[in-house]
Design brief:
150 residues, mainly alpha, 2 strands, elongated, two-stranded antiparallel ribbon
Length: 150
Amino acid sequence: MNVASWIVLARGPLEIVSLGLAVVPAFMLLQSWADLPRRIPVRFDISGWPNRWGGRGQAWILPLVSLIAYGLMSTATGTWAWMLDSGAQMPDGSEILLLFKPVIALLMIRATGMLISIARNKKEALDGWLMWGLMALLVAPPIALSLAIH
């Protein structure tokens, strides 16, 4: 069996974990909403320092990104059809997206936690691994998909 076949076999657990992780940022924000300051960081420079502040309603951007990313990748991997018909096949080459879903959700969880900490003055800047992880997500999918295709 090749790697793609193993990923497809692990689809059920991967989907459950991915969906669970995708909703965590929203729960984190709901839990901290009452004591979240009215002013939160909404943009960061390359080193992770906040360079623009906005209203706390903008904190919902990260949970929305998490859910939208899950939804888009689920569409690309045929998850919705698979949930309705367990025999539905995954489109060729989309297996790698099953692995990206939980990774992106974990990064959104970390980013939401960091945003809350910075807003509460418990941290000054985003940590380095989060910044590098987010940047890696920009280049990793095209590389992984090109390797999967060839």
